[in-house]
Design brief:
Elements: E1 6-7, E2 15-24, E3 34-43, E4 45-53, H1 62-72, E5 80-86, H2 91-96, H3 120-132, E6 138-141, E7 149-151, E8 154-158, H4 163-176, E9 180-184, H5 193-199, E10 203-208, H6 217-233, E11 249-253, E12 259-261, E13 266-270, E14 277-278, E15 283-288, E16 298-301, E17 306-312, E18 316-317, E19 322-329
Parallel strand pairs: 4-5, 4-6, 6-10, 8-9, 9-11
Antiparallel strand pairs: 1-2, 2-3, 3-5, 7-17, 8-10, 11-19, 12-19, 13-15, 13-18, 14-17, 15-16, 17-19
């Protein structure tokens, strides 16, 4: 089925363009309205196409800012190839500061490959799947922990099972220059952007570069420098920041046992910090009742050895919320 979205930019035109993707959206306020999704295209000499997205979740800000900063310094005269950038891909969620879209409640990173006849979230995913990803040689969807999580920063790949594709992604992740590379081996949900890029054989990166619904200055700096380093790695630009002196620590997530989920509702008091090395059975924290002062706190435990890579940000939790997750070293 054909997308409903149209673009005000010409993806093949040389130079720099900015405009919008326009998603038809008829509501009480505007019978023939559109949802505008800002897009920029920088087209230089012949070369590969890099698709950059931020704001897949609307409460994650490091990617959108870093992409904007990259665009400010990108000269088509010195660019080999094309950059298509959507810093605020999930525009309704981004404008509302929410993880999910206020238009339909959809989570864009659980919507691929999408449906052009579905709600706004599904229609955006379908445009990505049917129009933008087929143009791309490389793809980076930049994330952070948003309002509910805090992360140790990392660049990531999602293993596809295609050895050549996975090796190309890992080489790019190493060129990015983060302290940590995370390899997602445990990936039960096929509706992710990087799952779709894997299906289309597009070399892709992800990553988490902050959290708490704020803007991490080190996270923004890491993403901006990392993007320039991978663009140099792919032969698109010549000048890039120097890589760190030591190789990244390579980590993986292999099973659901790496996650801790709240077994009751209340206020979560963590017992660990980001980066803590823990053993299976160690205390992750405890959840205090918000109702009964006679209740003892409910202890929450890790079910695997590893490094604490992620922690819940808000104190208030509901049963089933993710409290923490781990990662382990990739065997050498």
């Amino acid at each position: 089925m054909t997308t409903q979205i149209w673009s005000t930019v010409d993806f093949d035109a040389k130079g720099v363009q900015t405009g919008d993707l326009c998603l038809p959206h008829s509501v009480h306020r505007s019978a023939y309205g559109v949802i505008p999704i800002p897009v920029a295209v920088v087209n230089g000499a012949p070369g590969p196409t890099l698709l950059l997205t931020g704001g897949t979740h609307g409460d994650e800000y490091e990617g959108p800012i870093a992409i904007r900063r990259l665009l400010c310094g990108l000269d088509p005269a010195s660019l080999k190839g094309r950059v298509i950038a959507l810093p605020m891909l999930n525009a309704p969620a981004f404008r509302a500061g929410l993880r999910t879209s206020p238009e339909d409640g959809g989570n864009l990173n659980r919507a691929y490959p999408g449906d052009p006849q579905g709600g706004p979230t599904s229609a955006i995913a379908h445009y990505m799947s049917s129009v933008l990803l087929p143009m791309a040689d490389y793809f980076h969807d930049i994330h952070a922990g948003g309002s509910s999580l805090q992360y140790q920063p990392f660049v990531s790949i999602r293993r596809s099972g295609d050895v050549a594709l996975d090796q190309a992604a890992l080489s790019a992740a190493r060129a990015f220059g983060a302290e940590r590379i995370l390899i997602w081996d445990y990936s039960p949900d096929p509706r992710l952007s990087t799952s779709e890029s894997n299906r289309q054989k597009v070399v892709s990166l992800g990553g988490e570069f902050g959290g708490g619904g704020s803007v991490s200055r080190p996270g923004v700096a890491l993403v901006e420098a990392g993007l320039r380093r991978v663009m140099a790695h792919w032969g698109m630009i010549e000048d890039a920041p120097a890589a760190p002196g030591r190789p990244a620590r390579e980590l993986q997530i292999k099973t659901r046992d790496y996650y801790v989920y709240a077994t009751r509702s209340g206020v979560f008091e963590p017992a660990v910090d980001l980066g803590t090395e823990i053993a299976q059975g160690d205390l992750a924290g405890q959840v205090w009742s918000t109702e009964d002062l006679a209740d003892r706190p409910s202890e929450q435990f890790f079910r695997h050895d590893g490094t604490v890579l992620c922690l819940r940000h808000p104190g208030l939790v509901q049963r089933g919320d993710c409290l923490a997750h781990l990662a382990t070293e990739v065997p050498q």
